[in-house]
Structure formats: structure tokens, C-alpha cells
Amino acid sequence: VEEEKPEPIEEEKPKPVEQEQPKPVEEEKPKPVEEELSKQVEEEKPKPVEGEKP
Fold it and tell me: What are the residue ranges spanned by the domains of the chain?
């Protein structure tokens, strides 16, 4: 009776929890922030300044 539930309980939730939120969180908001700030600033004052003094 003491050898029926000694380890099977520690091998059912020891790794699946560390492999469910280790990278998906760092790959969801790493570049979209640098691609949204570099396209809105270069499309607001990139040519209108060179077309005012020809």
C-alpha cells in the first residue's frame, strides 16, 4: 500500500509546467514593438522635408 503512490505523483507534474511557459512568452513581444515604432516615425517625416526645398 505504501509502494503504490510514492513516485508516480511526482512524475506527473514536474516538467510539463516548465515547458509550457519558457519561450512562447519571449517570442510574443520581442520585435513587434521595434517594428511598430520604426515604421510610424519614418513614415511621418521622411520625404515631406526633402520636397519642401528642391
Answer: 8-43
